[in-house]
Design goal:
By secondary structure, this protein is mainly alpha-helical. The protein is 83% helix and 0% strand.
């Protein structure tokens, strides 16, 4: 018993364990800030302005995954392929290339007429350009955060991430208080977007200058080829994931108006508290799961592998039940609690909060199987599944939102994540031959039960 306690104490004191604790805490605090100030921004902005900001953030994320070529995704792998000096040169090179492509895209957008940009992006021209500028700054910030992540500089990573989040909120609030009504054609949405862009752009400039100074090799074609070969194939997966999770706001804005998009975005942010809990828990699950898979490979003995897989299945079942219980509680108590802080013009959207929570729950069973595919280096399958789910989600949204409004988007999100879960479960079962690694009947039953609970509560609220 003493030996077990000592091993447990040693595990808690290990660097990966401390890093996980910091990352989970930091992620939760950062999202908690968003939830805390969400009612404040809802009070300061009209539903139309809130919807415009939601679309601005969506396009900022899409631009981040396209115009920068997401070269930051190559940082982790390059860390193990290069020595320290060459790695610093690599960082300065990809920061330069990604920034140049982003600025070129920004210049191209600036040349388009405002009417064209509004028709393409469903927000005004200035918000589109600010979204592209913020994406460029965010790209450089992500490079530095990735470096700190793999170097286990978890305290610095957490402090800087939280600091940037606080600055975005504080500057946005200050600009909303100062600019609208004092400058012509400046409303709350533009002030909020300007606050986000200034912090992201300023942070990117400061951190990017450090990368260039330490690397001093901004034009390195070998580094560019390495990063492009690694990152560009991931873009379809990233884009499809964004379409699956966020493009419904764009379609709601197009078919139902910015006011409906604002109401939906407000409710979705509250419902995504389940996603926040999952994101924190997943960071703790993945290292343990990879360790078990590596142990099974090293053991080689079939009995040992069977025992390890059984332990994974047991832990996955326990994890699922605990997470399902937490989700069920949030589905029941979430809307009444949200009503206490929700402005009257947003309250009609509270009925979809349980539906959003039920959809977010399916991230858990879906990522069980995706994590195995990552371990098995089957990333192409991950992209394929995300693309198929996003296509189904968009098709359903186009068909249903004009007829049923934004509540349809919440249910198509549930279906999209359910299809994603079923696709990866089938691939793992029939192609990777791991039929019993995860408790599929339990995963499916809990997810469907939560969706049924959400439907009942939505019906009662309606």
């Amino acid at each position: 018993m003493i030996a077990v306690l000592r091993r447990g104490q040693h595990a808690l004191e290990s660097r990966p364990a401390r890093a996980t604790l910091w990352y989970v805490t930091g992620h939760t605090l950062q999202k908690g800030l968003d939830f805390l100030f969400m009612p404040v921004f809802a009070l300061l902005l009209t539903p139309e302005e809130y919807g415009a900001v939601a679309l601005f953030l969506t396009w900022m994320t899409i631009f981040h995954s396209t115009i920068t070529l997401r070269l930051d995704r190559a940082v982790g792998r390059a860390r193990y392929d290069y020595d320290d000096r060459r790695f610093r040169q690599f960082l300065s090179a990809i920061a330069t290339l990604g920034t140049l492509t982003a600025l070129a895209a920004l210049g191209g957008l600036a040349l388009l007429p405002g009417e064209t940009l509004a028709a393409l992006f469903r927000i005004e021209r200035r918000l589109v350009l600010l979204a592209a500028g913020a994406a460029a700054g965010l790209f450089v910030i992500e490079i530095v955060l990735e470096v700190w992540l793999y170097a286990y500089r978890y305290r610095l990573y957490t402090v800087v991430s939280l600091g940037l989040a606080v600055l975005r909120i504080a500057l946005s609030l200050a600009l909303i208080a100062m600019l609208p009504g004092r400058l012509p054609d400046v409303d709350g949405a533009l002030a909020r977007a300007l606050g986000i862009t200034l912090v992201s752009g300023g942070g990117g400039l400061a951190l990017g200058a450090g990368l260039l100074w330490r690397g001093r090799r901004p034009l390195d074609r070998a580094a560019w080829r390495y990063a492009l070969a690694y990152s560009v194939p991931l873009i379809p997966h990233l884009l499809a994931g964004l379409l699956l999770s966020q493009f419904d706001r764009v379609l709601i804005g197009q078919y139902a108006g910015l006011g409906a998009a604002g109401v939906y975005s407000f409710a979705y942010q509250i419902g995504s508290v389940v996603f926040v809990l999952w994101a924190g828990a997943n960071r703790a699950w993945v290292p343990w799961f990879f360790e078990q898979m590596a142990r099974a490979e090293r053991e080689g003995d079939s009995n040992a592998c069977t025992a390890i897989h059984a332990a994974v299945r047991t832990r996955a079942g326990q994890y699922t039940l605990l997470f399902a219980m937490a989700t069920a509680i949030l589905i029941v108590v979430g809307p009444p609690l949200a009503r206490l802080v929700t402005p009257p013009e947003y309250r009609e959207g509270l009925a979809i909060i349980p539906v959003v929570m039920a959809g977010c729950f399916f991230m858990l069973p879906h990522t069980f199987y995706v994590n195995l595919e990552y371990y098995a280096k089957r990333t192409g399958t991950i992209s394929l599944g995300t693309i198929l789910a996003a296509a189904a989600n968009i098709t359903l949204n186009v068909a249903l939102i004009p007829r049923y409004g934004y509540p349809a988007a919440a249910w198509t999100t549930v279906l999209g994540y359910l299809l994603l879960f079923l696709f990866h479960a089938a691939f793992v079962r029939f192609r990777l031959k791991q039929a019993n690694l995860f408790p599929f009947p339990l995963l499916l039953a809990t997810g469907l039960a939560l969706a049924a609970l959400a439907a009942i509560l939505q019906g009662v609220a309606g």
